[in-house]
Design a protein that fits this description.
6 helices; alpha+beta; three-stranded antiparallel beta sheet
Length: 173
């Protein structure tokens, strides 16, 4: 399956499901969508989605984050928005925020993204058990599916080491 179509299917897991029952964007006036540096990583292969969609609202660039797969260094893409988007075209990282996948001793877990603590009231105050269970389950399901791909698994391993630097300051929840 083409990675763009895989991501489009995974996006559907988050149609109508959010981290909490209330509109979390109302708590913080959508802080995660504001600012000139409000960028979200696109997971490996995800940038191909935006060649299929009308994407005037999004700017995609190479990020500083890289990982190695089969001995080849790969740059992760990052998406910047203008603060407004079609919710059905948001990248996966936006759909799962403030959660993120994490490999813990080779085991896939869903954790509160330690980087969310700077902008998100939910990220600062809630533990994984406080989020909507269906939301957490769908996040986990999406990354179980993606992790079946060897390149994605290589990315996730490096990404988890990257998060470890943040987790030194913000213990896992």
């Amino acid at each position: 399956m083409n990675s763009a179509y895989l991501y489009l299917q995974l996006y559907r897991l988050f149609d109508g499901i959010t981290p909490v029952k209330a509109d979390c964007g109302g708590l913080c006036d959508k802080a995660c969508c504001r600012g000139d540096d409000a960028g979200m990583y696109l997971f490996p292969g995800e940038a191909s989605v935006y060649s299929l969609l009308s994407s005037e609202w999004i700017r995609i660039e190479n990020s500083d984050f890289s990982y190695t797969y089969n001995g080849v260094g790969k740059k992760l893409k990052i998406a910047f928005c203008n603060g407004g988007c079609d919710r059905y075209q948001r990248p996966l990282a936006c759909r799962i925020f403030p959660l993120t996948p994490y490999l813990d001793k080779g085991r896939l877990r869903v954790i509160t993204d330690p980087r969310s603590k700077a902008v998100c009231p939910l990220g600062r105050t809630l533990g994984i058990e406080d989020y909507d269970r269906s939301f957490v389950r769908n996040v986990h399901t999406a990354f179980v599916i993606l992790s079946k791909n060897r390149e994605f698994k290589a990315f996730l391993s490096e990404y988890s080491r990257y998060l470890d630097d943040y987790l030194k300051f913000f213990p896992k929840k």
